[in-house]
Every structure is written in C-alpha cells, then in structure tokens.
Amino acid sequence: MIHSFKINDKYIVLDIYSGCVHDVDKLAFDVINAIDEIGGIELALAGEHGSPLQMLVDKLSAEYSETEIREVYDEILALCKAGQLFSEDTYKELVLPNEGDLSPVKAMCLHIAHDCNLRCKYCFADDGAYLGERLLMSVEVAKSAIDFLVKNSANRRNLEIDFFGGEPLMNFEVVKAAVEYAREQEEKFDKCFRFTLTTNGVLLNDENMKYINENMHNVVLSLDGRKEVNDKVRQNVGGAGSYHVVVDKLLKMAESREQDNYYIRGTYTAYNLDFAKDVLHLADLGFVQTSIEPVVTGDDKDYALRVEHLPQLFEEYEKLAKVYAERMRTEKEFRFFHFMIDLEQGPCVIKRLSGCGAGCEYVAVTPEGDIYPCHQFVGMPEYKLGDVLAGIQNDEIRRELNGCNVYTKDACKECFAKFYCGGGCIANAGIYNGDVNVPHEISCELQKKRVECALYVECARN
Q1: Considering the entire predicted model, what is its pTM?
Q2: Helix (H) and strand (E) counts in the chain
Q3: Comparing 49-53, 231-235, 356-360, which segment has the lowest mean pLDDT?
Q4: In the chain, what's the furthest Cα-to-Cα distance?
C-alpha cells in the first residue's frame, strides 16, 4: 500500500507499511502510480516475465520512451524486493485485543484548577469550569492522585504529571505541594516523575518562572498568534484582549528555558483561516517551538471549521511548509510541531496502532478527585472511570478504549496516515460522533495534509 502526492517541486511516495519515503522524479512517480493502478506488487514482480511490464509501457508511452520506463521499472522492482515499496501489512497481528490485561497507568493530567482568568470563546473546558463548579484542587486530593498513579503504575518507573486547568497558576501553591510530594515518593517506590505545566501566562512572574524552570520538564504556553486574532477569542473576564498582557511574559518564559522544552501553543478557527500567518508571527516574535492546532467544536459555532474550509486550510499548510523548509538552517529556523515527523516510524508499535492511550495509560483527575480517560472527557458522567480514593471502577469504558486501534476504525483501515496519528483523537470521536471508533472527519483530513507537509519538509531537508 502506497500513498503518492506532489507538494511544490517534490514528487513523494510513501510506502505505508515499511514507512519508507521516496523522493522521486516525475517519471518514477508516474510509473509507481501506474503500477499501483493496475496491480501493485503482484504486477511489479510479474513484470520480470514480460506482459505486465508491457502494460506499463503501453500506459505511459505517450509521455516516456520504453527505455526510460524499463530502466526506472528495474529500480522500482529492486525496492519492492527489498520490502521498501508495496510492502505487506505486518501490523495486524500486533493489534491489542479487546479483552485481556490493561496497561498500567503512566501519565496523569492533574486538573489543578477548574477556574480560569480568561474566557476564550472556543474553550472546550467551559471557560475552565468543565460544565460544573469553579473549583481549585486541594493538597489532599493532589496527594491522593499521586498515590493513585504510583499504585496503578505497576513496574513502570518513569511517570508523567501535567498540571492543567483552567489556569493552574491560579492554584500554584498546590502545584508546588504536589511536586514536593511526588519527589518524596520517587525514592520510596523507585519512580521518576516528569512534570509539565500548561499556562495562559497571565500570572507568570519572575518567582514562578524560576520555580517552573527548576521543576517542569516541559511547559505549554498559550497564545493564538497575531494580536487581532488572539484578542478576538482569548479575552479576560471583562472582555478585553489578552495579547498585550501575556506576550512579553510568554517570550521571557521561552527565553529563560533557552528556547527548549516548551511549546507556544495556539488554536486556529474559522476566524483565521490564514493561520500560517499566525505561525510565522509567533516564530518572528522569537518563539522557536511552535504549535497551532485546529479548533474542534460543534457546527453551531460561528468559529467552527467546516468541510468547505478544507481547500483553503490545505493551501495554508502547503504555504507554511514551503516557508518552513526555506527557513531551515537559517537564523529564522523554528520548529512547528505538526511538521516534525520521525521517518523511523516514530514511537513504539502500540502507540502507532492505538494512539495516546487515554483511559488506559493516561488519565485525567478533577479537583474533586474524579478520574476520566483524558482532559477532554472531564465533566461527561458517562466517561467517569472512578476516583482517586476508590480507584478505577468503570472497567467497561477502559476496555472499550483499550480496544480502539487503527484496525477497529473503518475510516483508518485504508488511510495512509494511520500510523502517524494512531487513529486520531478518541475524545473528539466520542464527543462529536458518539463513537470512539468513528474519527472526527475534519480532524482526519487536516491530519492527512499535515503528514504530507511533514514528509515534504523532510524531503526538502535532505
């Protein structure tokens, strides 16, 4: 199974199951596509013996000579025999069964604050309240959550905690207490904690920046790009824009971390379909690690992305990829999360098949101590797994999520990008389609375009 595409001056062929990426000329591109159309690997191998190869010659003779076609065909045949083109699917047998042992928990999103000092229009978290009361997590709940993580991590040594909200800096003393308590558990239980904190930057100051830099392995900083874009959707309680309040603080945070181990993370909506300008705005401000994600919401919102927006969004990603490639190895180089791809096939096989592990390896804990599969499911009672004192009680949901993989989702089975996204976000699928095995359509289409652009960038780099 292959996927072929052209971006700018690059003709690219991805061999899905081997993960090999071929940067080819137009002749090879056309021959490979012709092979795919009339028989794939079977044709290529049979072509050694005559007639199928003649089919290719006949199909392409209007543009290429028989000698050209035969020469490139021999090179393609060698790649096929080496398992680098038209390779077979060797992953199906590795798919996790729906029944059986569940993975130990290794990561936790700790909702340190169900409250926020901003009122972002697109916020999936109901302005930080998650469809409930505005609450701050207590030290006792934070400690119980860490105890739960340690107890349910089995023999996993490396554990992760993401301090999330709302806005976690509104409850920073509990963040510090949780870090201190987790460090105490490391020696007792032979664990190693890594911490991440997500913040909108409003409350950043020299004191908490110093603490964050000393204790947080990674930091996610929220800003949506250009001032007019950011201030239309990221406003304070009184309705004023937040750009001028946070931009210098966020940049100082990035620079204090030597432009590493952080992301400036934004969201684009129907208000800024020209989002490439926002990515470049962030890069030109001096942020080296950037990520801007598409909003996912119901069609009733005026800022929602819709199917009719896709052609323009695809064009934006391609424009961004071209500029991104041009800036590589220059003083304007930066990193865009969605264009960073591992041509060695990325994370472990199970991650490639089943995604983030929400509800199994990864859970979210609310200020009350309730456990959900991930931060996006919080506030939805049908997805509540249990609580940090009683433990996980809803194993039915866990097993359903554990059974999700790219082979249980019809939309993924023939998708070229499936091993790069692991089947997409199960929360988006569950929330907007009512079925964790039915991926969110627009998210899928954008993911496929981002994979193409990322592969283009890698070809341009090399």
Answers
A1: 0.93
A2: 17, 16
A3: 49-53
A4: 76
Q: What mean pLDDT is predicted for residues 245-274?
A: 97
* Contacts for 279 with CB less than 8 Å, ≥ 6 apart: 225, 290, 292, 320, 336
Does 346 fall in a domain? no
What are the start-end ranges of the E strands in 315-385? 335-336, 362-365, 370-372
Residue type, 223: L
Q: Could you say which of 55, 90, 125 is where a domain stops?
A: 90
pLDDT value, residue 44: 63
**Cβ partners under 8 Å of residue 443, min gap 6:** 294, 296, 424, 425, 428
Q: How many domains does the chain divide into?
A: 3
CB 296 within 8 A of CB 440: yes
Q: Which of 288, 211, 293, 199 is nearest to 249 (CA)?
A: 199
The identity of residue 303, as a single letter, is: Y
Mean pLDDT of the chain: 91
Tens-digit pLDDT profile for residues 196-246:
999 999 999 999 999 999 999 999 999 999 999 999 999 999 999 999 999
DSSP sequence for 158-174: EEEEEEESS-GGGGHHH
